[in-house]
Target: Acyl-coenzyme A oxidase
Amino acid sequence: MTMVFLNKEIRDGDNPDLTEERKTATFDTNKMAEVIYGSEKLARRRREISQAVSLIPELADSKPLPFLSRNEKILESTRKVTALNEHLPRLINMNDEDEAWHIHSEVIGFEGNPLALHHSLFIPPLVIQGSDEQHEKWLGRAKRREIIGCYAQTELGHGSNIRKLETTATYSLSTQEFILHTPTINALKWWPGALGKSSNHAVVVASLIIKEQNYGPHLFMVQIRDEQSHEPLPGIAVGDIGPKMAFNGADNGFLGFNNFRIPRGNLLNRHCNVEVDGTYVRPPHDKMNYAGMIRVRSRMAAEQGTFMAQALTIAVRYSAVRRQGFLENKSQEVKVLDYQTQQHRLFPAIARSYAFIFCGFETIQKYETLQNEMNSGNVSLMADLHALTSGIKSVVTYQTGEGIEQARMACGGHGYSMASYISEIYGCAIGGCTYEGENMVMLLQLARYLVKSVELAMRGKPGDLGPMVAYLAYPDIKVDLVTGPEAYVKMFQHISKRQSIKATEKFHRKMESGVSRDEAWNQCAVELTRASRLHTRLYIIETFIRRVDSIEDLSIKMVLTDLMNLHLNYELLDVASYALEDGFMSSTQMGFIKNQLYSSLEKIRPNAVSLVDSFQFSDLQLRSNLLNFLFQVLGRRDGHVYQNLFEWAKSSPLNQTEVLPSVTQYLKPMMEKAKL
Ligand SMILES: CC(C)(COP(=O)(O)OP(=O)(O)OC[C@H]1O[C@@H](n2cnc3c(N)ncnc32)[C@H](O)[C@@H]1OP(=O)(O)O)[C@@H](O)C(=O)NCCC(=O)NCCSC(=O)CCCC(=O)O
Ligand SMILES: Cc1cc2nc3c(=O)[nH]c(=O)nc-3n(C[C@H](O)[C@H](O)[C@H](O)COP(=O)(O)OP(=O)(O)OC[C@H]3O[C@@H](n4cnc5c(N)ncnc54)[C@H](O)[C@@H]3O)c2cc1C
Model:
């Protein structure tokens, strides 16, 4: 039986192919949005905010961004973000981070802006690592945007290995100051977003030196530019690092110090301190100064899930209006979305977007618990969350990159045009594989945790394993996949456990053969990263199942169950070789998984457009609206892509004149010469 849901947002004049899709949906997209965003209130607020933004012309792009130069992009993103700043108090609840995040992505898009890091990486470390007194001094000013800041950690020579950062902060007993210094070119800060041209403050990570002893990376509040003139302060060299693959509306920068002095009170000292006489007060956890990175990583699953969801919204809508080729009926070409290959390209990625967003909820909540615990001095949760978020950040960024690239290819030629907006989304999202910890490096961090856990299990201490890794001690009992999701989890647990054990045993064998610990680790690194990926994918599957279990609305639960089954079969198929290898999975089971996968694609087909509509991205957010000016056009909610692609092309600066200088200066003379 199909429940017919009349989508309230079907509009007159929409492309009939899309209207037809929306009519076949078996669920209410507003209800689904509540599940995606976690509450009726937030889903509703997002719609209200989008609506309010659409009525303010100055918050729209003034030109299609791909046609702008780098300087124009920065000017435009700054214009928008400052205009937005003026409107913000009327549009959102200023204390609600989700509302703020939504409105910024809507107005700014993926190109970045000079304030992006201020909120995500300048204020949070100040909150986490700053004392009450330091909050008093800087936090209010930062929140009011009297000062603009960034997070300056990475250097030209070091990003992953932060223990080897070369920027020094040497304590001067005589003046009670820290002297910041960049001893070599390699030690220049390099990459920090918004540092290059916009920020006048930075949280700088530098190696703390007291009486010639290096205490490792610490965080310092540093004013880098004059608040009046915006000129760099004496002793500071700062600038932009040049154009990047994407994110060119932001000014990632470099920064060098020439014996630049800051007061002792600028060491962010909620958890550690340097006393007047140079006595160092240790933090409660060795890696306390890394807590800000856990925070950002904990938010990456949800963030990347929505990045992928935007690319998929564009690709799925387009696939429902793009007609090409025939199936049975030779009188009308089919929507490309009807091809099984197209569905296989897009639907598993839709499932992953949902999975990442659900998983993101859990990690954000876990971080909030950690933050509360840390505030009361309990750091026992840090190691677990560091391991978990290290794996999640790596898996979701990689799979998001894959999903967005598939979305681009699914749009054929038009996907390659910047009119699709997909290349911009890709460029921004894929940066996540590198920033906040390069993926391999982070997978190896999780592997340390897995190896230790396997060692505990091997020593017969399974009781000491945390809930996340308890399965490493479970016995192997064959499963019948027909029985449902739990059996899939057990199969995945077996695969993940076996890989963790295999990698650990290999590591042990290498050491027993006389290879040093570090060398042995390196010789097992690929196997170790495999274990980390499997463990993380298992965790994501489990969060998906938990979320679907918790849903009460039947129509929503049914379609999410289809999506979850697709996810389970797709993921298991992808790693099946691990289970076939030791005979835990039979070839019959493999066939079963494939058939389940194909049948999931068919089940999802009528709901595909509504599943992406449910993310409720506005046309402005997808840079697909023509309301005020010409924007990218492929993901338009109304589905009128062709005429708008033509408008877009006409607006290209190249078409503002019929004969270009390239022709008069070079081609014409060449052709004339050839005639002689
Ligand atoms: C790879 C590590 C973790 C290694 O650190 P290390 O001090 O050399 O550590 P080690 O001696 O090898 O010991 C590892 C040990 O330290 C633990 N650990 C490491 N990090 C944490 C943590 N956050 N919480 C709790 N524990 C932590 C690990 O679990 C290890 O513990 P173990 O020895 O196994 O018991 C570190 O260097 C690191 O985090 N590197 C990545 C750098 C990074 O993420 N940079 C981000 C810059 S900001 C940015 O990119 C902004 C992007 C823009 C945007 O978001 O939009
Ligand atoms: C868009 C963007 C925004 C950024 N924003 C900021 C910012 O705001 N502030 C800031 O401080 N930084 C920022 N960064 C810098 C970013 O955090 C670093 O680039 C990142 O941490 C990776 O470090 P790296 O560049 O040193 O890479 P490298 O470590 O040099 O990586 C190169 C290769 O070496 C491998 N490798 C390195 N170490 C190991 C190891 N131990 N084991 C195995 N393989 C290894 C890596 O896997 C990789 O394949 C940003 C970067 C980007 C791309």
In short: Residues 120-121, 151, 153-154, 159-163, 193, 287, 290, 293-294, 296, 382-383, 386, 435-437, 441, 445, 448 surround glutaryl-coenzyme A (ligand 1) (CB under 6 Å). The mean pLDDT is 95.
